[in-house]
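Message: Just now I want nothing more than another pair of eyes on a protein record. I am handing you a single protein, as its sequence and its fold in token form. As I understand it, each token names a local backbone shape. Take your time, and here it is.
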Amino acid sequence: MEQPSTSALQTSAPAASSSSPSLEDIMKLLRGKTDSQRLAGLLLVTKFCDKDDQLTILNVYRALGSTFLHRLLLTGKGSGGGGDDANREAYLRLSVTVLAAFSRVSQIAATDEMLSKIPLILEVMSKEDCRSGSSLSEECYEFIFLVTNAHEDGVITLFESGGMNVLASQMPILPDGSHAMELAMKLVQLTVSKLPAEKVFVGYPSELSKMVSAIAKQFALLHNALKFEALHLLSTILSSSHSGVLHAALLSMGDDWSTRIRIGVIDVLQNRVVPAEKLHALVLAECVISFVGEEWLIGPATLPGAQSSMPDVRCILLVLESSRVEIAVMLNELAYLKYEASKNSPINSEAFLGKLRNVGVAFSLVERIIKLIAKFSENEESNSTFNICDSTSTKMIRGLNETIGVVLDYLQDAKDHGEKKGNDLLASVRIAGSYLAEAPDACNEKVKELLGYMLSVEGENESSPFHSISFLLPMLCQITMEDDGCKLFASTGAFGAVVGFLISLIDTSSARIDNCSSSTVFLACDTVLNFLLKREQLRFSLENSWSVKLLRALIRWTEDTMEPSVIMMASSICSLILDSTSERDLLRHPDFCADDVSALSQLMKRSLVSCGQDSMHDDTNSEADLYQIVTSGYSSWADRFPRIKEIVER
């Protein structure tokens, strides 16, 4: 390329500025035969042409052609040969300015010629002097974004040309709230939304984690529209089903990124913004908690070094209150769609599912808060950095009581309408069960009225209320420790429901002996055991069919194990069941045979002889109480079971 002198660059424009050149004169220069003419024409374009006049820009692009601008860019970045440093800097800035102007015309931005410039501009962006948010930097970002967005192959070209590396290295040092930062965030949005997630999340977890941290800073600091763009982008990235590798990368960075998100969430939830944005903030909070745990809800409400009077519990209080509002509003709207609007027209499934997703987010957050409160209650003497004071805890529990009351009212409405199937109902049972497990006396009258119904609720794709029983099991185990709870357990059909659930659980491959530590199996066993221990004083008669089914299931559960906890739990329940019947009555049942008696005999012998020896000599052993139940029961019913007695005492 011909090399005009620096003085030529400096004087060509002033010479023409004494009287504004016509567009026709500029076009003649752009079509000139020498590089000096074209260069002078470009300088005049940047000085006299309106950058928003797309027709003029299109005519300039057609007059100039592609070759000269390409050579100018190469020379400016030092790979085109010739020229001193001062000229190269001028050529670079001019070529980038013109390319950015061209890219504002979508017709030009969508051309292959512009697409081919993406790798070159990324190289320019990687230069040290282009990392400070200068006008050159902003024009580079503008060109990259407009071409990437306009061309069908723009995103993949950006990606394959090293765009992830450039963005990851520059976003942390771009000026907060700058136009370059805004465009960088838009490029991240295009990348994660248009490319296969495996390429981005699995291929570049470290780079993506740096981008997340930079975006989180914008979310924390800004108070304009870009704050909400950051909110939406963070939600998109962190909620991806492919974010597992990103999870590890973020955790390795420390907690700055999560603190920034907490500050942004607080800012959105405590100010007057549209409900949709508050919901987005709740979604983001749920995403972060899934990464780092519920403790994230309690922590600093300002960036390091900033002064603030906000307490560390500000986030958890705002998230709880916002979730409670969301639950009340969404459940009311869901009930209207199901029972009122449907009278005149079919339910709008899209609207229904949208509201169900929204209430699901709020339910999840409330469950997280319930879990966190329970954790702090269990560890009051812990040296945790953050804690919840009594007054705050009381305030939160009062709010939770009100919200669970609203959820139970929704279930009552469904019961009154004869509905017992639906994911909305199942989710309602789940959150009620989570809270009642920690506060079994809460909403006492409503729970008494609804327990039997809740145990019958099925998910949309379920053929039995398996999950509902699972969600309520911790609460049922709690209440069966008391006489009144056992009465409720008996009167609502909960005993049959839990026994059926336990049998089903034992018979699934994942819950057989190989997984004897399964907490759910033992929780169900504890619940049944609690009730059977109080059965006589409640005058509850065991149905023979349930007794037979449960005995056979417990035999299957223990037939291949040597685990003492399993053997003692199963034999304790069996002993209590046998105390209510006889060998003769059991053998009359069509589903119980002599082989079952033999297997039951072996189980009782193992518990009394093998496992019992250790339990009897160790009062601190967790199986000691179970051993006492077995031995006490055996002395009571052994004479009614001659075959079992013979094998045990052989």
